[in-house]
Amino acid sequence: MMRQIVTETVLGYIFWSLFQGLGPMIWFYPLNELEISGYEAFCLLWLSPIIAFFGTIFNLIQSKLGLACLRVGMLLCIGSFQAPSTLSRLEVLAVGNGLAMLVLVSTLWSKSQQQRCITVWGLVLGFFAVLAGRIWLTSFNPTWWDKTTNSVVLAIGAIATIDKIVTESSKASEDKTKSSHLQCYWFPTSVGFGSLLFLTHWLFGEVSIVTRWTVSRYPDHGPMPDPWGCVILLSLATGVVLSVSQSLANNILWWVVGCLSLIGLYWLPTWKAFACGSILATYTMSIWPEMLDRLTTCPPVKSLLTVMLTYLVEIFFSVWTVAYNFVPGGVYTREHTDYLILCVMVCIGLALFSKRRTKEPSYTSYVKISEGDMPGKPVYIVLLITVMVGLAGFASRLHQQKNGQGPERPNKQFTAAIWTYHFGYDNKGWPSLERSAKMLNETGADIITLLESDASKPFLGNNDLGMWLGEKLNMYVDFGASTRDHTWGNLLLSKFPIVKSKHHLLPSPHGELAPGITATVNISGNLVDFVVTHMGNDRDVLDRKLQAEVLANELRNSPNPAVFLGYVTSAPGSRDYKKLINHGRMKDIDSTDQERWCEYIMYKKLIRLGYARISHAGLSDTEVQVGRFRIPDNPISYQDNDRYVTDAQLVDVNTRFNPRFGPYRHGHNSIPDHLFHMSTPKYFLPRT
Fold first, then answer.
1. pLDDT tier at 374 (50, 70, 90 boundaries)?
2. Which of 594, 602, 483, 615 is closest to 554 using CA atoms?
3. Spatial distance between the Cα atoms of 623 and 675, rounded to a whole number of angstroms
């Protein structure tokens, strides 16, 4: 039995990898086009079980040969990561998800009770295997990380798939236990399980998500992903252990606890919300076996179709709550996660309580098979191993946590950078973390703001970019507005300690909700304020006007030297530009640069030393801008540098930018490498 459980766990891992991987690939297209692209239709392959309405086809996919072909095809589609183009990768991945759904309808409704049972526990344990793998890769799924890890997953999956095909009985024996198809309320059961599937992917697809829902400003920023993600992992595992009690899952008071915990996660502050998230994790996994047990007593094809339709409605609604400015009907869904919470929990409640359990025996999850009652010892052993592997992953990264006072800066010099990060995907849809981290490190930036950086949402991969980059670059992290605040993210990374910060949801009456951070950083004993933001789109004129007023007030009221790193969506000299400069009492780092539209660097009470624009080389749709400054000894009486040169030999070696980005360059860089461009770098010197 242990061998079968391990095999099913690997197959469950393959299922979850395919399932979690499709959303980000579909999202790649509307992300670039800022509108519905048509590629969303690929998600319809999740409805592939519709072909099993025909009895001949259903019998074919339940045959040994048919199921073997589906399993092999499903595994091969894991190799989509190594496809030559974005579209071919999406096509293969979508087909893989379609095959996975056919495997699911075949095995969950198998004539063999043993097959149904181990499929249920394989899905549960495979989910934990995915979580453990993500912990070791700092929130990223190893299947979709790089070609090496993808190949390793393919190899392990091949062993499990071959073992399953070889050991699978050629003819499943039918159960003596009969399902109650005619008595089962299949529709509420299916809608409820679809909502449970969405809830699991939405909030627990990676163990750091709850901490990003509850993040707050410095100094009381709330639970950090490492180590507090351990609590979520253990809470999920506790739910599996408690799931052995069917009476608990069917207890209406336990459902009320689940409802209140989800409400608390959304509405309560920081630590209270995190406690609610931990309880919700336990509740969620405690009802998975019971919900699957009920689902398998329902008609297979129309039930699984309803499950996936429910999931699709809810996942699209979650997109609509954030992307409302670019989608039809967005005015009705704007920031309405509360509607989604209500829908999810009501649907789960209807599934559990529209037909109350009496004394009828379990049909799938809690049955007695060849070696005893399920879940048996093999399930708990594999669960324990996967949890221990996950905890070991956290322990291995403890030394990577940022602490201390940052690098020594005897000349009070620091470098700041701004970049629109594109959620950690390059312009072809592949992960860009390693390449972007290398480039950011080469800029020498001490403080970095990354816009469009909240990828903790399921359709963006459930990835924690802040945690990954913070550990990779050895920097403090201010995540900015929380994931539950319906923004695209505004991340601040600093090599120096962040003393305090304030998170802004800027006025956005018409367009997408604009995030911002005001942070005070201790740079070698000197306090410097940073105001970072992504303002609204150029078409949202009133939004940008109101946002500029708030930001200008923040800058004006800053008592310390200050730097503004912002995506302003306006030309130099525009209304909003002038508001920031004049009312905010700021200086443009290079007022002669008229070839800007989005990103700007401004400053006050500092001495500017250098300014550079670095091409994105296909990692994003926006360049990187870098500014270098010195903190004056006397911020009231000092002389700023007011002339520039382009010859690096004329400035101190410590002031020069990294020559790795090439020489001074006019115009755009079209070479696929990170190089200086747009008449930079420039160095600023005092008046002669």
1. confident
2. 602
3. 10
pLDDT digits (tens, 9 = 90+) for 651-687: 999 999 999 999 999 999 988 899 999 999 999 999 8
Residue 59: exposure state from Cβ atoms within 10 A (0-12, 13-18, ≥19): exposed
pTM, 2 dp: 0.95
pLDDT tens-digit series, residues 181-204: 434 689 999 999 999 999 999 999
- What percent of the chain lies above the pLDDT cut of 90? 84
User: Are 544 and 514 in contact, with CB atoms under 8 Å apart?
Assistant: no
Yes or no: say if 604 and 588 are a contact pair by the CB < 8 Å rule: no
Question: What tens digit of pLDDT does each residue of 130-162 get?
Answer: 999 999 999 999 999 999 999 999 999 999 999
Element holding 440 (H helix, E strand): helix 433-443
Amino acid at 664: Y
φ and ψ at residue 429, rounded to 5 degrees: 90, 10
Cα 104 from chain centre = 26
In 341-478, beta strands by DSSP E = 368-369, 372-373, 413-420, 447-451, 476-478
Query: Which residues neighbour 6 within 8 Å (Cβ) at sequence distance 6 or greater?
Result: 160, 382
- Residue ranges with strand state E in 320-369: 368-369
Phi, psi of 462 (to 5 degrees): 55, 40
